[in-house]
Automatic annotation (TrEMBL):
This is Serine aminopeptidase S33 domain-containing protein. PANTHER family: ALPHA/BETA HYDROLASE DOMAIN-CONTAINING PROTEIN (PTHR12277), PROTEIN ABHD13 (PTHR12277:SF81). Residues 51-78, 93-126 are annotated as: Disordered. Residues 55-64 have a biased composition (Acidic residues).
Length: 400
């Protein structure tokens, strides 16, 4: 459904009116498409180390989790190992180093769903997300009061590498503004490898993915760059509560930042580097715009604004979200842009314009990939190694 075709326009207008003229509701319907079901699960562990099974009062939408096969747990705070410095860089190429193609759970709609109008589909989706958000808020508040911990379980559809020795913690961070707990995975280098200059990357992922699908890449980054990586799911994604909206993603990254600054970086914000991929460029640019303490910013396939990706026309500018092009002009930290020249989802000119609007003092060499698109920058012989080399050079120059 194209956002400019008559049925879609009617659907958006209906949603706008029925949501109380909420720009966020319409923009959210256009923008956010979390994997359903998620590609991971947070197993709940009580104070005695026992698995907490899903209770009968959990929302119906969550029952999908029980139908998914989940692999053995990856390393978390209960299973700490030391990094083997002698291991070579993991070269992720070919079918064994990728997430296998997965059919979207919503791809096979029944006849009844197909007969529904676009407006009905949008409204029902919004209502479903709100119901799930309320139920998760209640459950997560109870879990916090009961001292429940979490263990990351990857979906069996994912082809994942070995843990590579990183210390992995799974936590849920309360975002009181959106009334949701954020599923957050913290990949730490072992204490023996930490230095006063160890960087921590806060990774804001792309649209149709979640922290489970990002596990492979985060493991490689931690091992190859000897830095910490914090990956989180936006409100309404994966195991996170709340609903996916632009403003919620802003408070999401602010919540994660405050936690990382205090708990991981011990108050030193200069060791924090933001990494925003695609949709993740929105919250990353927002925080870099507001915060002058950051160590750096990496934008991977960014866009100038959300609506400009859909159409160059400004007729729907009232619904525009993530005005990155306006915010990037005010960042006060070293910034690098990565973009594939064959990108058909977010055209290359978006990345180029973002790079050109970074203040010259903070503008760092971009990486324009001639033969890559939106999601395949690290794929192919030698591409992961080149990706790591580029990131390493950027990070190493931050302390100069």
């Amino acid at each position: 459904m194209c956002c400019c075709c008559p049925p879609a326009i009617r659907a958006l207008f209906c949603l706008y009116v029925q949501s109380g003229c909420s720009k966020g509701s319409v923009a959210g319907a256009l923008t956010f498409f979390p994997p359903d079901p998620p590609l991971y699960k947070f197993e709940r562990i009580d104070r005695n180390g026992n698995v907490v099974h899903e209770s009968d009062d959990d929302e119906d939408d969550e029952s999908l989790d029980e139908k998914r096969e989940v692999s053995t747990p990856v390393i978390d705070e209960m299973d700490r190992e030391c990094l083997d410095d002698d291991e070579e860089l993991l070269e992720v190429t070919g079918p064994t180093g990728r997430v296998e193609p997965i059919e979207h759970a919503g791809a096979s709609s029944n006849d009844e769903d197909q007969e529904k109008s676009p407006a009905q589909q949008l409204m029902e989706r919004a209502q479903k997300l709100r119901r799930r958000a309320k139920a998760r808020w209640v459950r997560d508040c109870k879990d916090t009061a009961n001292g429940v911990r979490f263990r990351l379980l990857l979906d069996s559809r994912l082809v994942s590498p070995p843990s590579r020795g990183a210390v992995i913690e799974s936590v849920k961070l309360p975002n009181t503004k959106s009334k949701g707990y954020l599923a957050t995975v913290i990949y730490k280098v072992p204490k023996s490898a930490e230095t006063p200059h160890t960087k921590t990357i806060i990774y804001s992922h792309g649209n149709a993915t979640d922290v489970g699908a990002m596990y492979m890449l985060q493991s490689v980054i931690v091992h190859a760059l000897a830095c910490n990586v914090v990956s989180y799911d936006y409100s309404g994604y994966g195991e996170s509560g709340g609903v996916p909206m632009e403003n919620n993603t802003y408070t999401d990254i602010e919540t994660v930042y405050e936690y990382v600054k205090e708990k991981v970086c011990k108050g030193n914000a200069k060791n924090i580097v933001l990494y925003g991929q695609s949709v993740g460029s929105g919250p990353s640019c927002h925080l870099a715009y507001k915060n002058n303490e950051l160590g750096g910013l990496i934008l991977h396939s960014p866009f100038t604004s959300g609506m400009r990706v859909l159409t160059p026309s400004r007729l729907l500018s009232c619904l525009d979200i993530y005005p990155n092009i306006n915010k990037i002009r005010h960042v006060r930290c070293p910034t690098m842009v990565i973009h594939g020249k064959l990108d058909q989802e977010v055209a290359f000119h978006h990345g180029r314009e973002m790079h050109e609007n970074i203040p010259e003092e903070y503008r760092r060499d971009p990486w324009w990939i001639r033969d890559r698109g939106h999601n395949d920058i690290t794929e192919g012989p030698g591409m992961m190694a080149e990706y790591v080399r580029r990131l390493r050079r950027f990070l190493s120059n931050l302390d100069e």
